[in-house]
Each structure stands twice: as C-alpha cells, then as structure tokens.
C-alpha cells in the first residue's frame, strides 16, 4: 500500500511537470489538483492578480521616454533614428517629483495609460529586472556579486522572471502564491488560470494552472461533437473515460479526466449566466484574453472563488528591426486592452480587488542597431488597479548614457529593483505572509534588506 501511495504521488507530480514544460500530454493532465494545501488564512474577500506578459523583451526606452531637457537630449543622441519626437510623447506629472528634476513621458501610443496614471490608478516601475541580489556597476565588473545566468537569453530570463529560478523551474511565484489560498476556493482548479497557454509563472505545486482559450473552457473532443452524431455514443464514451479502474495509471487518468470534465461544465455554466459587459474590449488577441479574465472574475461568486492569479500574453516585442513600425502598434493594443480591463473591473465593483502588472523577460538597449534595439536587462513596467498607489514612479531613474553609471554597455541597464521585490509587494497585498514569501515563493528575497522588500506601490 505504501508503494502504491508513493507511485500515485509520483504520477501526479510528473503530470504537473508535463503541464509546466508544455510537453504534449492529455489536456486533462493540466487540470489535475495534486493534493490539499491548507491556506494560510481563510479570506472572506476576493482578490486577483493579473500578469500581462510582453513576450520578446519590451523596448523600455520608447515606452517611457526620458523627457527632462538634459535626459531627452542624451536619449535622442543615443537612439538616433529610433528616438520618439517631443510631439510624439505624453509628459507625466507624478504626485511626488523625482530627484534632480528628472522627468518621463509615455509614448503617444500609450495614451490610455496617461488617463489611468493621472487618475492614480497606474504606477510606473523604474529599472526593474531579474536579480539574485543587489548589484552596482562596480560589483558587476568585479564579479563580486551573483547575477542571473545568461542575461539576454529569452528562455533563461523568462524562467527567472516567472519563477526566480533558472530555466527548467517547475513552479513559478504566481502559482505558488495561488497554492497558499487554493483551499479557500471551491474549485481549486480555477486558482491559477492562463488564457495564453502553459506559463511557468502559474505553475503551482498544489494548484497547477488551468488553461482555457479566450473563447472559453476547452472541451474534451467527445463533448464538442457527438461521435457519429449520436448523443448516446457520446454519453457512453464519457462513462468509459470516467469509469473506475484497478490499474494505478488508468485509475488516476480517470480521476483527472473526470475532474477536467466537471471543471469545464462548471465554468461553462457560470460564464453562460454572467451578464454582458457595457465595457467594450478591443478585438485583438490580448483584448479577448483580458475579456475572458474579466468574465472569470465576474463568475467569482458563482464558482465561490476567493483568490485567483491570471496570466495573459502578447508577443512580437523582439524588435531587432522595424521598431518604429511595429512597437507603437503593440503599445496601442496593450494600453487599450488594459484600460478596458480596468474599466470592466470598475463596472463590476472590484477595481480595488484586482491588480494587474506587466512583465517581460528583459528591456532593450538604448542604442540603435540601425533599425531596432537589442537585448538589454532592466526595464520599465506598469502596475494598474484601484488599490495601486498610482501617479507615482517607484525605483531610481537610471542615467541616460552609454556605459554610464547604471549600465553594462549600450545603455543595457543593471536593474535597481528586482523582480523578487516586485513580486513580494504584490504577494503581500494578495495576503501571502512574509515567512512564506521568504521560505518558498521567492528564494532570493532574503538577499534584500527587510526595509526594501515591499516597494510600497500597493
């Protein structure tokens, strides 16, 4: 019996690993709940975290433009033909001015963000990126501090961003935050939800990510179309799939498949009864993904969910060429979709309960390669929501220079804020305790002074 229980646990563990790694496996395996996690608390309110991931490495310097006279002059000189003109940027006036007269402006393509910033619903992170511990340029050059491996590698930096661990990590910090509260949700399956395929960020150890399409839950083939047009055949096939088995693996497959079918039916029913939004979402991939997230939040009471972590993604940011032709279109899509999502949360009366944040594996160089920019390190990011301490910049404004005080060359910024600090601040708001953040979720957080672990943006 002991051997059987151990084998069962290993099967479930490996099933989760397949989901995390994106290996071809039955869709139902991605829906397995692998155990019972006791929540640190039993929350009575609802909260959700929503990660909006810019795949490819967003060009930070044409997202948030240095706009005070000295910085803009340096920016324009270093960027050359990539520099946005002064009539193509939107100056931001923060509630608390930056030191030394530093100022920043948004790309005109991000105009919906300007309104959110001015309404104190949007905050800006300055020079945020992957770190193991704080590092200065002198320490970087002397190799006296640990730095993340393979800076500039898409795969490696994506993993470190989403898991604070090298490529191959099986659990991400978003998923592990969801783990803490999985038992507070009636349907634990809907704790960590991706509308963009498998994500390391949402891979939990207790509540593996649930993947659905922007159109809704994905049904098993037999439930999409009755075989031979016969509902009786479909019902018989479903009974066979869910039938109890004596073989260990067949038995677990039946249990997991039944759970998948039950989850799909519950979610389909909850979404079908939810009223339509007055808010109009853009007809783009990201717009549809965020609309589905909004619909799931709308169904939170029907499904008895208290804590959820969501993941959506927009690609196309690896702009080594045609930066000016493509980047603005991506930015317009991002800002329009995220603004619509915020408006939908306000429409539902949960704007203070939902916090969205952007992520991307790295920023890009301030120098031009002729038609685009190359892989960098630190970047600028946004946090949006009713609970956000908005209309503020967080972190230190980097020097705008090639080989300046903040960079490793070509304007490749050494981050002054770590992803771990960013995630810890979000986790604290979500309700995760300091001890759990340090011991399990964010292994590098202990390398930072306790006074700097919470960035204070929410």
From TrEMBL:
**Residues annotated as signal peptide:** 1-38
- Keyword set includes Signal: yes
Keywords recorded for this protein, A-Z: Signal
Q: InterPro entries from the xrefs?
A: DUF1501, TAT_signal
The UniProt entry, under Pfam families, shows:
DUF1501 (PF07394)
Q: What is this protein called?
A: Tat pathway signal protein
Its lineage reads: Bacteria, Pseudomonadati, Pseudomonadota, Betaproteobacteria, Burkholderiales
């Amino acid at each position: 019996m002991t051997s059987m229980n151990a084998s069962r646990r290993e099967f479930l563990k490996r099933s989760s690993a397949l989901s995390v790694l994106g290996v071809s496996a039955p869709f139902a395996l991605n829906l397995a709940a692998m155990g019972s996690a006791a929540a640190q608390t039993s929350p009575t309110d609802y909260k959700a975290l929503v990660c909006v991931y810019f795949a490819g490495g967003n060009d930070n310097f044409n997202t948030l433009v240095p706009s005070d006279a000295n910085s803009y002059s340096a920016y324009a000189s270093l960027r050359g033909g990539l520099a946005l003109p002064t009539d193509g940027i939107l100056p931001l006036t923060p509630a608390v001015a930056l030191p030394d007269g530093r100022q920043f402006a948004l790309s005109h393509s991000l105009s919906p963000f300007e309104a959110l910033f001015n309404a104190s619903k949007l905050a800006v992170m300055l020079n945020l990126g992957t770190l193991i511990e704080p590092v200065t340029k002198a320490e970087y050059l002397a190799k006296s501090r640990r730095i993340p491996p393979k800076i500039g590698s898409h795969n490696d930096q994506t993993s470190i961003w989403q898991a604070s661990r090298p490529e191959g990590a099986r659990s991400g910090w978003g998923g592990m935050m969801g783990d803490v509260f999985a038992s507070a949700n009636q349907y634990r399956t809907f704790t960590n939800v991706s509308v963009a395929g498998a994500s390391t960020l949402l891979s939990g150890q207790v509540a593996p990510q649930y993947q659905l399409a922007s159109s809704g839950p994905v049904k098993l083939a037999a439930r999409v179309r009755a075989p031979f047009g016969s509902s009786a055949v479909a019902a018989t096939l479903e009974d066979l799939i869910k039938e109890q088995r004596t073989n260990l693996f067949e038995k677990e497959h039946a249990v997991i498949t039944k759970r998948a079918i039950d989850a799909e039916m519950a979610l389909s029913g909850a979404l079908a009864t939810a009223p339509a939004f007055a808010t109009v979402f853009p007809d783009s991939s990201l717009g549809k993904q965020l609309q589905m997230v909004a619909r799931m939040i709308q169904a939170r009471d029907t499904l008895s969910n208290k804590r959820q972590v969501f993941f959506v993604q927009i690609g196309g940011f690896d702009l080594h060429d045609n930066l000016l032709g493509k980047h603005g279109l991506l930015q317009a899509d991002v800002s329009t979709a995220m603004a619509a999502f915020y408006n939908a949360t306000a429409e539902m009366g949960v704007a203070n309960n939902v916090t969205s944040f952007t992520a991307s594996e790295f920023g890009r160089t301030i120098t031009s390669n002729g038609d685009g920019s190359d892989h960098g390190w630190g970047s600028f990011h946004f946090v949006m929501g009713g609970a956000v301490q908005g209309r503020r910049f967080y972190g230190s404004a980097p020097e705008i220079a090639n080989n300046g005080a903040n960079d490793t060359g070509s304007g490749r910024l050494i981050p002054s804020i770590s992803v771990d600090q960013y995630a810890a601040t979000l986790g604290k708001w979500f309700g995760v305790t300091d001890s759990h953040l340090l011991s399990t979720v964010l292994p590098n957080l202990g390398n930072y002074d306790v006074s700097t672990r919470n960035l204070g943006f929410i």
